[in-house]
Amino acid sequence: MLDLKELQNSFEQISKKLQKKGVDEKILQELKEIFIALKQKRASLEELKAIQNQKSKLFPIYIKEKKDISKLKDELEENKKKIALIQENVNEIEQKLHNKALNIPNIPDDSVPDGVSEDDNVILKEVLKKPEFDFIPKEHWDLDINQNLIDFQRGVKLAKSRFSVLKNSLATLERALYNYMIDFNTKRGFSEVSVPFIANKESLFATGQLPKFEDDLFKIEDEDLYLIPTAEVPLTNLFRDEILKEDELPIKLTSYTACFRKEAGSAGRDTRGMIRQHQFGKVELVAISKPDQSEAVFDEMVSCASDLLTSLGLAHRLVLLCGGDLGFGAAKTIDLEVWLPGQNRYREISSISNTKDFQARRAKIRYKDGKKNRLTHTLNGSSLAVGRCLIAIMENYQKEDGTFEIPQVLQKYINGTR
RNA sequence: CGGGAGAUGGCAGAGUGGUUGAAUGCACUGGUCUUGAAAACCAGCGAGGGUCACACCUCCGGGAGUUCGAAUCUCCCUCUCCCGGCCA
Fold first, then answer.
1. Domains in chain A with CATH codes
2. In chain A, which stretches have pLDDT less than 70?
3. Interatomic separation, CA of residue A59 and C1' of nucleotide B5, rounded (Å)
4. Which nucleotide is nearest to A72 (CA to C1')?
5. What residues are paired with A245 via a beta bridge?
6. What is the pTM of this model?
7. A262 CB contact with strand B at below 7 Å
8. pLDDT value for A312
């Protein structure tokens, strides 16, 4: 969430930065005015409350001294009514302000390039050479020659479209990837955690999926619970409402979870194959850091994910997202795009974001900085989306006969299968 | 899912209407003492808002209510623990 005090004090700068994300200045102006009005209203409310508190304390004294309390009582009853009236007004304004503020995206970092769409993103670096083929490489669904690896039909039968079933060696490979990735991350100092795949609404508010993106989530009927769209939600919320010790930061975590997304608004996109599913496995990285650490931790996370791809022998590139393509909660994001020879293009396989104090403010994640409690920074990034990684391996390691190899590093994870 | 008990500061644990944001113990931080450490002693030590700084306001699981005044009384909700049922 936006720091409203900051908005009041440095309106020009913040407003200018948020233009990058396409936020209308009028909304910010309104927000600022409501905030100032609220502060004034609150001040007068508190004054009346102070009177009420002070004079209430006179009762026991009056009674002891056998003085008449009826006049005092009348006075305070009157004052009480005034308080109730203003209180109601204050609550109303607070609610209004809060609702509006929750819908304002994070302020982009200064390093974020201007731009409105993914076409304006900046390619930072390409890693590894794209593989060359002396035949026309196929897309992943055409590589399942005997139909014994991916079962799309039965995935639909079990749930609905955009669900699939993995079988045989591909199922094994998926499991191998989870293990390999987590081991890889652990060696880089990320501690492994296993968390619920269901989260309550407080958690989803804290990381910013709610209230704005409810339509993208699978909600559990009659409960305030949702299937998680990413492990970022449970991992970050681990520390919600907590005050951490300075010397335990940065906290770096990795976890495998299934992720569930409605993909509302993606109708017609990637309908074929496993690129865009309602459920997919992902190994996630999350870090909680002090503000002055987050830049370095961010770089660490980017190299962790990139090195992981490199270790799998997958050509990829690092893309710095422009303001218009930046997610709601992110101050800065680097996407990793893997080369898919069958599609003949790069596709996003990982996305690493620094949300700075945006989530921390919503989630009240603080640390004790000497005497003061300060907000932490939070960062998240896919180590890799496992489903897309499977596709990448299939397509990049394919042979002319439609079979494909398994990267060296995964051999020991597949128990000699194949 | 049925029956019972409970929810107070980092933890433990007092407090049942009145100057209580909260005793006490532990933990923690600073100091004295010590060659150093421990012990002992002294001091500090919840959170959010507000202010240049004070003042002041809010918070004793969450919400609503009674009252001049609520951690304490009433109602609703949630969660935890124990007993039973069911079940990975």
1. 4-101 (1.10.287.40), 118-413 (3.30.930.10)
2. 416-418
3. 37
4. B68
5. A368
6. 0.94
7. no
8. 97
